Amino acid sequence: xxxxxxxxxxxxxxxxxxxxxxxxxxxxxxxxxxxxxxxxxxxxxxxxxxxxxxxxxxxxxxxxxxxxxxxxxxxxxxxxxxxxxxxxxxxxxxxxxxxxxxxxxxxxxxxxxxxxxxxxxxxxxxxxxxxxxxxxxxxxxxxxxxxxxxxxxxxxxxxxxxxxxxxxxxxxxxxxxxxxxxxxxxxxxxxxxxxxxxxxxxxxxxxxxxxxxxxxxxxxxxxxxxxxxxxxxxxxxxxxxxxxxxxxxxxxxxxxxxxxxxxxxxxxxxxxxxxxxxxxxxxxxxxxxxxxxxxxxxxxxxxxxxxxxxxxxxxxxxxxxxxxxx
Length: 326
Ligand SMILES: [Zn+2]
Prior knowledge:
It is built from eight helices and 20 strands. The chain is α/β, with parallel strands linked by helices and about 325 residues long. Helix 8 links the parallel strand 18 (about 290-295) and strand 19 (about 310-315). The protein is globular, with a radius of gyration of 20 Å.
């Protein structure tokens, strides 16, 4: 199968685009994070991804929603979405064409999360995989251990008469952090962007603890979840003016030394919605693929490690017109 890597993955044989970065007539979209969506004419995606894309402005797209593990024929290919464990609705895409099985991982996580469907990894001949954390120094602690640290941070901050603010992305991380706060005895507030996305999670039946929408100007008597970009907003300035706050950044990058200094927060917690280094290796093993193409993050370094371990691997680069032949 031929792969053209040019502003997204293009498979000329079955005439498919996977997560293209420019609008296309038809595209398969793995999940609704901003770097994976565009205003295409026709989109094949999971139902939650379609709902999130609509919320993010893709109102003119015609959506064909696919269930997980249910193959559909499209053009000359057979396409099956498998849950990717990254955020709600995230999918790996298996393309079967010309007696080949090509698996595109999208963004994925092997560890079970609280707010996304657990991953199911199919077998494939060729894998195109994300390698965001593809260096051995990225090994994450147990999820429950990090969740306890986050709850402890919130509780002690409130006991000290301050208000905890957790900076996290509005889609995926926000809902995972919210789920980690299950059982706490203080109010949980979500900023508008988090609130809107969380409503979709609730509509799709994800169990979540009770939360409230933060109204700018109100007294903050619990924990606030918002994006780090909010610190530039006037409403956030008002929060800082009227309450003593302590901030924490929630991201896989918190594993790096100096994370608090880098994120300008009081604390940083390594909770990620991506696979860590060991889980990237495990993913390769689970697919049974002979040929692996890496993308995002440490693509070159991880491909080199795979080659040293006896795999046939190379990074895919966003080079105009680059062709890879399998
Ligand atoms: Zn993502």
